């Protein structure tokens, strides 16, 4: 049993270890972090969580050594801060890489802490937020470690769809950190300081002899606009962390619970009918339609700079979270490209995993065609969207705004998708192919045999034009109703309220013919 002097000595030792942990990489490295415009890892954690709610795990960990770890030699928290706290009153886990300690690199103990965080998040069913600012593998510890360990990637895959994962990329991340980010369900990159790459510029130079900057290699513009690996950009650490908190506000803590609701807010005062141009071929901004339907200020667009011909994002209607998938006529007329299909599929799967209803706003001329589209595998990507819809059990609502042509309309939740509601505006047109172009293909022989091919084509187009409108579709019950555009929010809200009745536990077993089933 320890006597009082021994207890006091141990308490003094505890305080010394605590001071070591919060010192991070030391004053010089912390100053350089600040000069780069970056917060340190503990400041980032404090911003993520509600005040005073964070509890750290593994404060006194250090780098791997075969001997006894001494205080003076310890690497504080071994370059990663891990623990649990509250985000808007709900539990979440964080893994924060500390660039001031060995560049936030991935070592033996560092990796052990990360793996433990993933496993705990999966067991406790809470979201996991990654504050990524790490330089990849720590060569001096892992270079002679044999076959690389895939365990933590397997655990990340098992967590996906079970509890939300957010990757916030705040520094130059290569190797392991970059792969972790790529596997998250929402990826935020900070402009100017962040990078995601399999190997940084020195590795690229050594491997293929190319000199490249980290921004051109894997900066935020590259991954948010070109590759689609990341979702949204942020200008500062503070903005990125606030964006992560906002994203989590639309989702439940895990796949066993439902999204949280908040107070209803009226939409922006928008005359929806006035948005559409009189000329059918003229574009308009679908964002204006979205803002006229959802609660004001509630729309959070996901991947706003990637595959802009389709819009995906979260919003609220009467305070309840919904996922929005909408064609954007401003870009390639809203046609479904391979990139757009991949963007939509991923978002549909995300909403389906976390019980978020889906609202589709259709204005689609079809799937993109042409040699480039075929090289990109548009057919396979488009069919993957329908596969995602097939496995989606969340309430779905389809609003046909203007065009709903061909397989593109199918991919945008066409008729037969088990929707709670399918409505069309009076401006809507439906067909397997647009009349213009479709008639030329379907009646090719008749047109070529006519004395005046151009006149024959126009006559055929006129014959079928009246049958592609919304009332013909309503007569055949491939839409439930044709509505005034300004009734859209009311009808969508009613369908969402109806669909929430399915969110209940199975009834208790009851006697059947006097015998319990």
Automatic annotation (TrEMBL):
Q: Where is this region: Disordered?
A: 497-517
- Which positions fall inside the CoA carboxyltransferase C-terminal domain? 267-512
InterPro entries with a match to the protein in the record: AccD/PCCB, AcCoA_carboxyl_beta, ClpP/crotonase-like_dom_sf, COA_CT_C, COA_CT_N
Q: Name one GO molecular function term.
A: propionyl-CoA carboxylase activity
| Pfam families cross-referenced by the UniProt entry | Carboxyl_trans (PF01039)
Residue ranges of every copy of the CoA carboxyltransferase N-terminal domain listed in the record: 7-263
**Protein name stated in the entry:** Propionyl-CoA carboxylase
């Amino acid at each position: 049993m320890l006597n009082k002097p021994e207890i006091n000595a141990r308490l003094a030792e505890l305080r010394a270890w605590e001071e070591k942990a919060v010192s991070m990489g030391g004053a010089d490295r912390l100053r350089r972090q600040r000069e780069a415009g970056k917060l340190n890892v503990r400041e980032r954690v404090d911003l993520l969580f509600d005040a005073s709610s964070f509890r750290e795990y593994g404060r006194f960990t250090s780098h791997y050594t075969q001997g006894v770890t001494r205080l003076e030699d310890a690497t504080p928290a071994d370059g990663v801060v891990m623990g649990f706290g509250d985000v808007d009153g709900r539990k979440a886990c964080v893994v924060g890489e500390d660039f001031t300690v060995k560049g936030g690199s991935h070592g033996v103990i560092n990796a052990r802490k990360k793996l433990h965080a993933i496993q705990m998040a999966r067991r406790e069913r809470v979201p996991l937020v990654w504050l990524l600012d790490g330089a990849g593998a720590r060569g001096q510890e892992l270079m002679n470690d044999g076959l690389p360990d895939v365990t933590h990637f397997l655990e990340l895959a098992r967590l996906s769809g079970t509890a939300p994962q957010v990757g916030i990329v705040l520094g130059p991340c290569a190797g392991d950190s970059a792969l972790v980010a790529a596997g998250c369900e929402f990826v935020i990159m900070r402009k100017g300081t962040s990078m995601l790459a399999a190997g940084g510029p020195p590795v690229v130079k050594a491997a293929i002899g190319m000199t490249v900057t980290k921004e051109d290699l894997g900066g935020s513009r590259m991954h948010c606009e070109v590759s689609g690996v990341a979702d949204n950009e942020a200008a500062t650490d503070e903005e990125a962390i606030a964006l992560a908190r906002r994203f989590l506000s639309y989702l439940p803590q895990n796949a066993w619970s439902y999204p949280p609701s908040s107070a209803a807010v009226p939409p922006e005062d928008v005359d929806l009918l006035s948005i559409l141009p009189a000329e059918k071929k003229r574009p308009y901004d679908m964002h204006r339609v979205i803002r006229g339907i959802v609660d004001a200020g509630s729309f959070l667009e996901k991947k706003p700079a990637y595959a802009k011909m389709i819009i995906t994002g979260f919003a609220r209607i009467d305070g309840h979270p919904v996922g929005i998938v909408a064609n954007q006529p401003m870009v390639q007329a809203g046609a479904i490209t391979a990139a757009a299909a991949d963007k939509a599929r991923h978002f549909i799967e995300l909403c389906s995993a976390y019980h978020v209803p889906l609202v589709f706003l259709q204005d689609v001329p079809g799937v993109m065609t042409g040699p480039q589209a075929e090289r990109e595998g548009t057919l396979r990507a488009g069919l993957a969207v329908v596969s995602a819809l097939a496995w989606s059990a969340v309430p779905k609502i389809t609003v046909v705004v203007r065009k709903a042509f061909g397989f593109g309309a199918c991919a945008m939740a066409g008729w037969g998708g088990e929707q709670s509601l399918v409505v069309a505006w009076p401006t809507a047109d439906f067909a397997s192919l647009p009349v213009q172009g479709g008639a030329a293909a379907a009646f090719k022989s008749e047109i070529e045999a006519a004395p005046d091919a151009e006149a024959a084509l126009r006559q055929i187009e006129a014959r079928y034009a009246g049958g592609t409108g919304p009332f013909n579709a309503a007569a055949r019950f491939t839409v439930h109703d044709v509505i005034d555009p300004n009734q859209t929010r009311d009808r969508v809200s009613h369908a969402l309220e109806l669909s929430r009745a399915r969110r209940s536990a199975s009834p208790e077993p009851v006697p059947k013919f006097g015998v319990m089933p």
